[in-house]
Protein: UPF0284 protein C482_02376
Organism: Natrialba chahannaoensis JCM 10990
Amino acid sequence: MTQPRIILPAGTTETALIDGISAAGAAPELMAHTPSADVEILEFGAPARSPVTPVSPNGCPTPAAVTRAVREVCGFDVTVVDAGLAKPTSVPTVDLGIEPGDDIRDSVAVPDAAAIFDRAHGYGASLPDGEDDIVIGETVPGGTTTALGVLTALGEPTSVSSSLPENPVERKRRVVDEALAASNFTAGDCESAPFDAIRAVGDPVQPTVAGIAAGVLESTPAASVTLAGGTQMVAVAAILRHAGIDAPLEITTTSFVAAEQGEQLESACAALDCELTVTDPGFADHEREHVAMDRYCAGEAKEGVAMGGALSLVPESEMAAVRDQFETVCRRLGIESDGLAERSGFDPGSDTDTPSRAEPE
Amino acid sequence: MTQPRIILPAGTTETALIDGISAAGAAPELMAHTPSADVEILEFGAPARSPVTPVSPNGCPTPAAVTRAVREVCGFDVTVVDAGLAKPTSVPTVDLGIEPGDDIRDSVAVPDAAAIFDRAHGYGASLPDGEDDIVIGETVPGGTTTALGVLTALGEPTSVSSSLPENPVERKRRVVDEALAASNFTAGDCESAPFDAIRAVGDPVQPTVAGIAAGVLESTPAASVTLAGGTQMVAVAAILRHAGIDAPLEITTTSFVAAEQGEQLESACAALDCELTVTDPGFADHEREHVAMDRYCAGEAKEGVAMGGALSLVPESEMAAVRDQFETVCRRLGIESDGLAERSGFDPGSDTDTPSRAEPE
């Protein structure tokens, strides 16, 4: 009788503002609104207090629109955790006292990484029986760059995805190299010290997701925790393993991340003893043309806001209904099947190949 | 495709600690947990971070258990607003910066009543289209005493309900008289000045409910707002009318409040131009004996945590399923059909005729 639950830590970081890493060309004050707008779309079906709908100038809406479409068809409960939001949101949030992250090129990016993990652990452990099959997602602009940072610091094989069709991975690597140097670390220096890695080159959403997962797993041995996301969740799994947590873990992500990452994703998950599930919304097979689905198929956005995990809740027989509902959600957000009806606070003159939704994965 | 939504401002006040008004005999630190536990039961089906399940020594569980049973059968979204919680909760909340209320016998009970209304108004106005048919409930121990206080200060006919089978209304009147005197007011002095009334003798949940209602109604003229509660919502309706808001209002409450209040409730609603709907869970007709249902039928608890409003979402054909599910929720809370299996933090030696859930209505 009770519904599944998706827990969604949502945060921001100054790292997202680095030129060319995420939403270069979109105004920084819009990017800071992205997680707040994402959770409003997930909770209400449209932005509320947030002044912007995260869509790219190409008409590719945030993955929150897909996750919301699943919610409208299948139903699930949502718990948003404030993991460093920079802007107000109308959505109720769990307050664990988490501040936005700093630029990883500073000497410290997340000063209280270990304390955030502890508080999130306490939160996960406090959830009652019946709340032990949980899906944890994320929304944090710049999150794949901080994922690369942490994986590099931990000495794990590093491959991360991007919300851009052309992944600026070399640029990210240069940023991470600079970030590690600023913290007096080189690759692998933080092996078995995951909170040092996050503190130096991570973001506040990472210890929040990891802490909730660890709290649930340690308080309920029979619990099942799904990390809903792509390479950002690989980084979280690595954090958990380097923290000595060997409970079963599963990563569920979208076919769009899997297509980009190929074997690398599978081998990363295998190395972390982490089951991998790939979900496909079937956008390529949809019976009508829709610009948003086309953009996803072209490699934009790919994942975020627990999109892959939400799709795993959809019975195959309902997937066409989810695609239809995605069209409805898009229309509500001002995106018609042939493109943007209105730009919802967007400057149409801004850079045309960078989505305002910065690095959902 | 989207579900109905219940918005639940939850708060506490020192007024609840007055002897004989609410949970006399239960330890004060338990009573302060009641709203936090209520919202956890509503959101998770059981308490999480809260150390106590609000049930009376007679085995009468908090109305949150009924509202949760409706949710498990019919499904609705929940938005909890922190309207002055004193204890932590695992449930995500909207943070409007609201503190617990003071004792109404102090000169000031809610120092920033007007500012709370303004912030709540902004919140209500921020809700997007599609969120305009809302149900607003409450959970605040001592709430009927502060309702009596505000109604008296506004010069409205005063009759309030109680969670006790024997309503200690004369005791409440004496407290309110003392409270008004402490603020240098007499009955009717705050006519057309509802925030003065709340500031002097109200609680922080009142301006929160009123503000959200006003924000929704003023931003969306076609909106429909249901105030889910009994005489506490009569006080909120009076606050709105005295604030000059003449939009349509509806109060939905339970048959248990209606049975106690009789004509007085109808005439109070009529005087405030407020439609009244009474909902009946059919506990008297349930096919099996259940101590919790018996207690409600005997006049305990009666209303709270949007119970009456939640029941209004239930089609008549589903009401038996709600009762069955209520048995399931009770069992989860340690209440078997013939009584308490465990007392969940309760002192069984405490006063036997006063519920720990203090004054849900």
